[in-house]
Amino acid sequence: MRIAIAGDGVAGLHLALRLRQLGVEATLFGARSPEDVRRGRALNFVARSGSTRRREALLGVDFWTAPDTLAETRTVTVHGPEPLSFRADPHPAYSMVDFRLYLPALVEEYVARGGRHVVTELTARTVRGLADDHDLVVVAGGRAAGELFPRDPRCSPFDAPQRVLCGGLYRGIAEDVPRSIEFHAVPGVGEVLRMPFVCADGRVDVLGLEAVPGGPLEAVCRTPYDRDPDRFHAAVLGALRRHVPGLRERIDEREFRLNGPGDLVQGGVVPVVRRAWRALAEGTWAFALGDAWCVNDPVTAQGANLASYCALEFAEAVAAGPPFDEAFCRAAEERMRPYAESVAQWTAAFVRPPTPQLLELFRAAAADPAVAAAFAANFDDPPAMWRSIATPERTAAFLDGVRGRSAAPASGVSGERRTRPWAGLPTRPL
Ligand SMILES: Cc1cc2nc3c(=O)[nH]c(=O)nc-3n(C[C@H](O)[C@H](O)[C@H](O)COP(=O)(O)OP(=O)(O)OC[C@H]3O[C@@H](n4cnc5c(N)ncnc54)[C@H](O)[C@@H]3O)c2cc1C
Questions:
Q1: Which residues form the Styrene monooxygenase StyA putative substrate binding domain (predicted)?
Q2: Dist CA 39 CA 48 (whole Å)
Q3: In ligand 1, which atom is closest to the CA atom of 7?
Q4: 34 within ligand 1 shell (Cβ under 6 A)
Q5: How many angstroms separate the CA atoms of 25 and 114, rounded?
């Protein structure tokens, strides 16, 4: 079996590492060397979930376990006319490491294990050329590479970004709760996220602004940094003062600054789900993985975690052996689709004005720590999350289920189970 993996982000790397463990030869192609990635601009700020960390342990690349790299708590605050707030802690903790450290380390590990990594900038033509000497070409080159595959209109309701993003690594922000992710939803305005992060310069904070297009935060998100850093910093502080004053109060204005000019991501992504496969040449098929298949707004922090999930699922399908034909591609896509569609639908629900049932769930979480804990657990279980918010009936059933569990008599139920209702939920298959 000769497998080409075109793209060395988290999707391509987790696939390559798993295939190697399963004894399948694969060549991994990437546009930049590990050193170039380390020196380059930030392209994202990824919080990696407990499930992704479990997959990393399986792959033998769980390199980041120091307390500084972990986020153990999460606070959710809804601002506006009906403000509410609750703790929705992730169990296990999220890992918060700059992909400019993470991805090069995984590439080097893959090479150290005997894997082949080729640094070359692929084009649509050279990807087609890979069909000449490979049995299967996996396209894992991110959003732009996805254009090789047809859009699935049934699952792609948007044709423009639903948020204008301005995320960066900052200094001068103090945490309310140690090692916590803060998520603020400001109806009609957007979302503000703060989370601890480790980059090459050490511990910093991610501050992510997600502006509703046309809303009051959009101009701030579009403020250029390079031309006038002071103006940029003042615009960000002004927005925080107006929309999330509690967070603004924890910022020391004298210390507050972007960590470096390359530590800022501005723009927007168009959420899209594609058909995951296409013919490349007579008898050779291309399969899309990660953002090349399914792009989501970062608001739910799912894209890289979904890419990792799909990579390990797809590796099992490949390891089962050829033929890598259309039927193989259809079956592999079907295997990953329920999880990916849950992410897409949940994320779409979060960028739309909140439904009554979502507000109901937030109110219930603010009033009842057991509901907050179950909601927190669902962040790492997209099908369960989508089930809990898809319709008013499903939200009611979710709340009844949680309340029933937390009210259950102690006999036969461990204390762990009663105080951590997520403990009974199904774990993701690896
Ligand atoms: C601001 C922001 C914050 C985010 N936060 C989170 C989060 O908290 N949690 C989460 O799970 N997700 C998050 N995401 C989403 C996440 O970054 C993506 O979903 C994830 O990186 C997709 O991985 P991938 O491997 O499919 O693609 P990519 O990360 O895009 O990797 C593609 C790889 O292919 C290479 N490549 C591209 N083109 C070529 C070419 N022509 N030739 C050769 N190689 C090529 C690239 O160099 C790169 O290494 C965030 C995204 C953004 C923008």
A1: 143-250
A2: 22
A3: 34
A4: no
A5: 10
44 lines ligand 1 (CB under 6 A): yes
Set out the domains of the chain in order of their start, with CATH numbers. Answer: 3-45+98-158+271-350 (3.50.50.60), 164-267 (3.30.9.40), 354-424 (no CATH)
Q: Which two tokens stand for residue 92?
A: 């296990």
DSSP 233-278: HHHHHHHHHHH-HHHHHTB-TTT-EES-TTSEEEE----EEB-SEE
pLDDT single digits (tens) 217-234: 999 999 999 999 999 999
DSSP designation for 428:
P
- 386-428: per-residue pLDDT in tens? 999 999 999 999 999 999 987 765 443 333 232 222 222 232 3
Terminal-residue alpha carbon distance, the chain: 23
Q: Give 141 Cα–ligand 1 centroid separation in angstroms.
A: 8
Enter the tokens of residue 324: 């890598």
